[in-house]
Design brief:
The protein has 11 helices and 7 strands. With 297 residues, the chain is an alpha+beta fold. The strands form 2 sheets. A 4-stranded antiparallel β-sheet has the order 4-5-7-6. Strands 1-2-3 form a 3-stranded antiparallel β-sheet. Helix 2 (19-32) crosses helix 3 (48-62), helix 8 crosses helix 11 and helix 10 (266-272) crosses helix 11. It is rod-shaped, with a radius of gyration of 35 Å. The two termini are 69 Å apart. Keywords: Cell cycle, Cell division, DNA-binding. This is Probable cell division protein WhiA. GO terms for molecular function: DNA binding.
Length: 297
């Protein structure tokens, strides 16, 4: 099952207790389903959990039943074509059967619990969310432009801060930030899914931090190897010119240690000195050897 499917399954576990909230959820479903018109209501879904929730949701909200129920698995199709049932649904939300465009009836969504239920229904019917391990994108799509615009305003009042776009005749409200997706999923009753988004982001952050550390360590190692090569070249040049034996004892000791341990870090090489010296002191000696080697170049 996809992550979207998991989210919808979690949402469908929420009990249908209050009739006002059932009506609000059904309102969200209708405005974001495949068809909601004067002639037909048609809801199509691939979510088994949502398909099981629809009949009791309709019964709780309007005390009516679907005219057509799914006849198999896969894509579940529900529809209502009875004019009296359609009129009862439209009258519940104060819409006109002959209206050319649907609008959001804010009077139905005065209570915060009803707003939450409405968003849940909208997501169940017209929403999707990307697996957070692959990316961050959650959207609600409807063919009703006025509804989408008004829902965007409602969501901003709820401090959810969505973005909006038009795509292939659909009006889309979407989120592309993980924290916004977490807030939305939590608000509509899917805290477990919201936690999965949070955990996926945390894993990505940790993985990114480890990769940066590894890359940084690799870059530092490359620099150390390059520096050691320069030091070895300078020391061999001094040796070839007969200058190495004439250097002060401290520089001769440092040169001998570097030739004997070309892969040692500065800290390791400093520990080999007799007596051991600081990394800074050793670095100063090696820089001096490099400068003298360049003079012989």
């Amino acid at each position: 099952m996809s992550f979207s499917g998991d989210v919808k399954t979690e949402l469908c576990r929420i009990p249908l207790n209050r009739r006002c909230c059932a009506q609000a959820e059904a309102y969200g479903v209708l405005l974001y389903c495949n068809t909601f018109s004067a002639r037909e209501i048609r809801v199509m879904t691939e979510s088994e959990a949502f398909a099981k929730r629809l009949p009791p949701l309709l019964k709780k909200a309007f005390r009516i039943t679907f005219d057509r129920l799914p006849d198999g698995e896969g894509k579940y199709i529900f529809s209502i074509m009875d004019r009296d049932k359609l009129a009862a649904v439209h009258q519940t939300f104060g819409s006109d059967l002959g209206a050319l465009a649907l609008h959001l009836n804010f009077a139905v969504l005065e209570e915060s619990c009803c707003r939450t239920s409405f968003l849940r229904g909208a997501f169940l019917a017209g929403g999707s969310v990307t697996d957070p391990r692959k990316g961050y994108h959650l959207e609600l799509a409807t063919t009703h432009q006025s509804v989408s615009r008004e829902l965007e305003a409602l969501m901003r009042e709820m401090e959810l801060e969505p973005k909006a776009a038009q795509r292939k005749g659909n009006s889309v409200i979407y989120f592309k930030q993980s924290d916004r997706i977490e807030d939305f999923l939590t608000s509509i009753g899917a805290p477990v899914s919201a936690m999965e988004v949070m955990n996926a982001k945390l894993e990505k952050d940790i993985r990114g931090s480890v990769n940066r550390r590894v890359n940084c360590d690799a870059a530092n190692l490359d620099k150390a190897v390059e520096a050691a090569m320069v030091q070895l070249e300078a020391i061999r040049r001094l040796e070839e010119r007969g200058r190495l034996a004439l250097l002060p004892d401290k520089l001769k000791e440092t040169a001998a240690l570097r030739l004997a341990h070309p892969e040692d870090t500065l800290s390791q090489l400093a520990e080999r000195c007799d007596p051991p010296i600081t990394k800074s002191a050793l670095n100063h000696r090696l820089r001096k050897l490099v400068e003298l080697g360049r003079e012989e170049g």
